[in-house]
Design a protein that fits this description.
3 helices; about 120 residues; about 0% strand
């Protein structure tokens, strides 16, 4: 199998015994520099952990209840079916069997009040 070796003038990358298993890495790649945290965080840099305010954005005080999850599923179905107005959403909720926490059918007023409560 000596005839499988590249001849003189072959690129360095192929100057290896072809009977060996192919490389799965670049043997000519230099070592990576050691990383260390930047002590001078500021503009254009990652902030220093614990020194930036944690702005609450779409966080909840608790996990959604089963009723809230069911309402979310029903809203997805309403929007998937093309509902665009509150009236269309309420019709879809009622037609799909969704009910308020009190067990009544949805009205535009009760739907908007629930959305306001959930969004607070």
């Amino acid at each position: 199998m000596d005839d499988l070796k590249p001849g003189p003038g072959a690129p360095v990358a192929v100057m290896r015994d072809l009977r060996q298993a192919p490389l799965d890495h670049n043997p000519f790649l230099g070592a990576a520099p050691a990383l260390s945290p930047d002590a001078g965080a500021g503009k254009g840099r990652i902030e220093i952990p614990g020194r930036q305010p944690n702005i609450v954005w779409q966080n909840r005080a608790a996990s959604p209840t089963p009723a809230e999850n069911a309402l979310g599923d029903a809203l997805e179905r309403a929007f998937d079916a093309g509902a665009e107005t509150a009236e269309q959403v309420v019709t879809s909720l009622n037609d799909g069997g969704s009910r308020t926490a009190g067990g009544e059918q949805w009205t535009v007023a009760s739907f908007e009040a629930e959305m306001a409560r959930l969004g607070a």
